[in-house]
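Why should sequence recovery work at all? Because a backbone constrains its sequence more than one might expect. Tight turns favour small or flexible residues, buried strands favour hydrophobic ones, and helices have their own preferences. The token representation captures these environments compactly. In the example below, the structure is given first.
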């Protein structure tokens, strides 16, 4: 099942206080970026984030879910209705996220 544009718009609105939030559509789902770093994505209308230590500490009761078959487990964000919670989560995770890979030149 693909994610809806409406759910994406809702999540982007919840994150609107952060600068440089972007996304990329990929096979019916959406990859979310914060200041150029991949934070997670929207899969089957669920917000999932990378399971970095700061995210695990921020959401100690979060469950692990697969975004799609064959993928690594990610953390399910349940509290998507709180702008403050989501903004805090993304800010907390930022320093632990890997830098974007440089694009190879051909």
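From this structural description, the recovered sequence reads:
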């Amino acid at each position: 099942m693909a994610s809806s544009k409406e759910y994406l718009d809702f999540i982007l609105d919840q994150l609107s206080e952060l600068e440089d939030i972007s996304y990329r559509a990929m096979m019916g789902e959406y990859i979310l970026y914060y200041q150029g770093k991949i934070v997670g994505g929207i899969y089957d209308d669920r917000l999932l984030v990378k399971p970095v230590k700061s995210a695990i500490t921020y959401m100690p009761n979060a469950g692990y879910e697969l975004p799609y078959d064959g993928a690594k487990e990610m953390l399910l964000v349940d509290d998507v209705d709180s702008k403050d919670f989501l903004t805090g989560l993304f800010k907390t995770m930022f320093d632990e996220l890997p830098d974007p890979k440089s694009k190879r030149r051909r």
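A few observations help interpret the result. The longest strand covers residues 37-43.
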